[in-house]
Amino acid sequence: MINVLMIEDDTEFAEILSEYLIQYNIKLTNYEDPYLGLSAGIKNYDLLILDLTLPGMDGLEVCKEVVNRYNIPIIISSARGDVSDKVTGLQLGADDYLPKPYDPKEMYARIQSLIRRYKKVAVQQNDKVESDFRLDEKRHQIFFKQEPINLTPAEFEILAYMLKQHGFSISREQLVYNCKSLKDKGSKSLDVIIGRLRIKIGDSSKESIYIKSIRGIGYKLIG
Predict the structure, then answer these.
(1) pLDDT tens string 25-45
(2) Last residue of a domain, one of 125, 157, 185
(3) What would the pLDDT profile of 128-163 be if each residue is shown by its tens digit?
(4) φ, ψ dihedrals at 203, nearest 5°
């Protein structure tokens, strides 16, 4: 069974969706309160459906919190039609955005698609015997091929975030947003940091082995 967590204050809407999905062996558990949803053991769920207009906490803040702490697919389900909300949600790390109202069949299809994608990546990662990188958050240290890398605070934040999203494409906006040590929030500063990281791990921008440039999106860390 697929276990889906939903944070949605429209209980009637959540119940309708839950009744539809259960016939496909998808169990939906909904929380109206975003704070209760965040403390509901997110790591035990396979996917999160997140509304944006919530009591006491904006859904975009919830999205940011979940992305920073968990590796779980997120579908934003919202009646807010502002394009900036959609863009911000995706930049923060949400995987999909489905505007309300929608047919439950479409949500089912998107859930299936995301679950398949995440399982495929998980299998690929599990097939690897050993990664060349290791993150030690307690010591604030990153190792490359068992050797510690001498990193500036901004370099550490960028590489650590990429490691947490290992194998996934990450937008430039996500990297800049999650790098608190980056004084200049422009893309040029990010390019400089990525360039320095590549030098420190012996990577090449033209024939990159580890930090891949994804055209129109940003970067992906592999290896």
Answers:
(1) 999 999 999 999 999 889 889
(2) 125
(3) 445 788 888 778 899 998 899 999 999 999 999 888
(4) -95, 160
Domain with 170, as residue range(s), is 128-221
Number of structural domains found in the chain: 2
Q: 21 and 91 share a domain?
A: yes
Neighbours of 118 (CB within 10 A): 17
Tokens representing 138 are: 């307690």
pTM of the full predicted structure?
Answer: 0.58
Closest residue by Cα to residue 30 from 11, 3, 53, 56: 11
Q: What is the DSSP string of 5-33?
A: EEE-S-HHHHHHHHHHHGGGTEEEEEESS
31/118 same-domain check:
yes
CA 85 to chain centre: 16
The tokens for 181 are 């040590």
